Amino acid sequence: MRAYIEKHPYLTIIILWFFVFTAHLGTLYPNIMEARNFVTAREMITDGNWILTTMDGLPRYEKPPLPTWLTAASAQVFGLDNIAALRLPAAIVTLALLFMMYSLSRSIVTQKFMQCEVEVRELTNDKLYALITTLILGTSFYIIFAGRNGTWDIFAHSFMLIGIYFLFQLFELKSANYKNALLAGLFIGLSFMSKGPVSHYALLLPFLIAYGFIYKFKGFHKKWLPIILMIVLIAALSSWWAIYIYQMDTAEATRIAEKESSRWIGYELKPFYYYWSFFTQSGIWTIPAFICLLYPYLKSRVSNLKAYQFALLWTVAAVVLLSLIPTKKSRYLLPVLIPLAMTVGFYIQFLFNNFHSLTSKLEKWPVYFNYGLIATIGIAFPLGAFLYFGDNLDGNYFFYILSSIALFATGVFIFYQLRKKNFALTFYGTVAFVMLVMSLGFPLSEALLGNPTYNSISVLKESETPVYVLNDLAPEMVWDYGKASIKITKEELINREALQEIGILTYPSIEKNSLDFLKEKYRVEWKETFDLNPVDSSKNSYKNRLKNDYYIISRKK
Predict the structure, then answer these.
(1) Who's near 449: CB < 8 A, 6+ residues apart?
(2) What is the SS3 assignment for 548?
(3) 390: left (phi > 0), else alpha (psi -120 to 50), else beta?
(4) Which pLDDT does position 277 carry in this prediction?
(5) DSSP codes joined into one string, 314-325
(6) Are 241 and 51 in contact (CB under 8 A)?
(7) In degrees rounded to 5, what are phi and psi of residue 342?
(8) Is 44 in contact with 50 (CB distance < 8 Å)?
(9) What whole-number distance in Å separates Cα of residue 550 and Cα of residue 36?
(10) What is the spatial distance between Cα 428 and Cα 418, in angstroms, rounded to a whole number?
(11) What is residue 112's DSSP assignment?
């Protein structure tokens, strides 16, 4: 089994991607970030707002449009109501990320340092390290989260990693300078078209810092013209959309730019050390990720010290740069997981080659603990899931039984290989564990959901009574509504000369008694409450913004 996996790395990566990133894509309802993207994509299709993008009929210039274009293209092929299709572009670009991770990892460890008198570096093969690194990345928590969500982050960082690969080739090789420069410029520019300069700061700049310290930017005097062309291409791709919207809608573009820039220094403020536990965001690789950061321990054990130093410095530089920004969120650590996977790969590769011969308990017990814990979770899953879900398993027994059998067997397999000190199969068993969780266990998430007051707002889409929104709808409500809402203010309601029968949507938690000002002249009748929360109000994850009261306003008889 091991020989086949390592002999066919691209097939292995595709199988991993299929099970982790495409299974049950349409299971969960869109979150707030997805809803913004999906609504904008819908209005591209229905209203033709492909460049001057909108959300709920209002300008939406906070994010560049490339991911939304791809989402809209998928929707045109598979349908706007197909949630899985709307998420498919993110999954596909994640596959590109995994392929490029394999190529870049292999390039970094196989290209020897170029001596001054040597023009082309000698290439060697090290597919194993590249495969290990890619499998770690593809099973890291936030990569899975982002790759299965129709938002902007995975596009920005995937395009950036492709650009970095060609940039690395430009730096390393004597030939194909213009080709690599133009391809690097293209994909770095596409990254900007996905989420602005986020990935440039969080992924590209740390790469350049690490490359400068470790590889010294040798031979640049012969490549200045391709580099200038690359920079020009990046600038053109990065700026054209911003220039266009500024020319066509100056006031809104300026307002949104000022609002977005202020959010980086005055929103979600966290202390400098907030990201210091970044290695935990790799999920199942948390313990190996921590160990790989212990440079004094690992420096004499890795197969390629320079490449390890480069990956480690790239990781640390990314964390430090992100820590300098006052605004912090856990999901902003997504780009850090890319060089971190490379760094972890060196530790895992060391275990592949040496675990069977380790004698130090201090070296062996972290391995036994990490993979023993994963195996224990698999073996305990059938009983644990049964006790945890209880009656909520009704209607979900098919996937419960399948996932229980698969995870129990995988847990036994990991324990067996660990006992035999066959670390390679222990590692591959862990990767399989994640694949099975996502393909068989993920549907059980529906057993955690259930809101007896759930009521979709989409029924109002075809209402014969005109429907107005007294306050903005939450993006999820706008998506569910199915079209742009018509907004109205209190002043507009008061000053209407003739008030025909209309419907009014308001926030119940914010607008309590907000329609009392109409009761003197008009009949105000509460009709129903629309509630998109997938869980009931007793849960901490219940959100009042996903709830709207609906009233009918008519003249008094």
Answers:
(1) 534, 535
(2) strand
(3) left
(4) 84
(5) HHHHHHHHHHHS
(6) yes
(7) -65, -40
(8) yes
(9) 23
(10) 11
(11) P
CA 10 to CA 161: how far, in whole Å?
Answer: 18
C-alpha–C-alpha distance, residues 557 and 188, integer Å? 65
Q: How far is Cα of residue 352 from the mean position of the Cα atoms in its chain? A: 29
pLDDT attached to residue 342: 96
- Tell me the three-class secondary structure of 444-493, residue by residue: HHHHHCECCCCECHHHHHHCCCCEEECCCCCHHHHHHHCCCCCECCHHHH
What secondary structure, in 3-state letters, does 290-309 show? Answer: HHHCCHHHHCCCCCCHHHHH
What mean pLDDT is predicted for residues 217-242? 89
How buried is 251 (Cβ within 10 angstroms: 0-12 exposed, 13-18 middle, 19+ buried)? exposed
Write down the pLDDT at residue 36. 94
Q: Are 17 and 438 in contact (CB under 8 A)?
A: no
- Per-residue HEC secondary structure of 407-429 comes to HHHHHHHHHHHHHCCCHHHHHHH
Q: Are the C-beta atoms of residues 554 and 523 closer than 8 Å to each other?
A: yes
Note the pTM of the prediction, 2 decimals.
0.92
Q: Is the dihedral of CA 220, 223, 225, 231 positive or negative?
A: negative
Would you say residue 355 has pLDDT above 50? yes
DSSP annotation of 269 reads B
Residue 119 reports pLDDT greater than 60 = no
CA distance 429 to 413: 7
Q: Where are the domains of the chain?
A: 2-351, 358-448, 457-555
| Phi, psi values for residue 59, rounded to 5° | -55, 135
Q: How confident is the model at residue 557 (pLDDT cuts 50, 70, 90)?
A: low
Q: Give the residue among 479, 477, 428, 298 at the shortest CA–CA distance from 3.
A: 428
Give residue-wise pLDDT tens across range 130-160. Answer: 999 999 999 999 999 999 999 999 999 999 9
Buried b (16+ CB within 10 A) or exposed e, 201-235: bbbbebbbbbbeebbeeeeeeebeebbeebeebbe
Tell me the percentage of the chain whose pLDDT exceeds 90.
Answer: 63
Round to whole Å and give the CA distance between 434 and 442: 10
Task: Assess whether pLDDT exceeds 80 at residue 209.
Answer: yes
Q: Which of 111-125, 199-213, 541-555 has the lowest mean pLDDT?
A: 111-125
Which three-class secondary structure state does DSSP give residue 557? coil
Q: 480: phi > 0 → left, psi -120 to 50 → alpha, else beta; which? A: alpha
Report the chain's C-alpha Rg in angstroms: 27
Q: How many residues does the chain have?
A: 557
Q: What are phi and psi of 345, to 5 degrees?
A: -55, -35
Q: Is it the case that residue 121 has pLDDT exceeding 80? A: no
Q: For 204, which DSSP code?
A: I
Q: Which sign does the torsion angle of CA 37, 42, 43, 44 carry?
A: positive
Q: What residue type is 541 in one-letter code?
A: S
The two most distant CA atoms of the chain are separated, in Å, by: 96
In 3D, which of 104, 91, 234 has the Cα closest to residue 168?
104
Tokens found for residue 22? 């495409």
The residues near 121 (Cβ < 8 Å, ≥ 6 apart) are 111, 112, 113, 114, 172, 173
Distance CA 104, CA 342 (A): 10
Contact call for residues 43 and 29 (beta carbons, < 8 A): no
Closest-CA residue to 234 (of 296, 283, 282, 163): 163
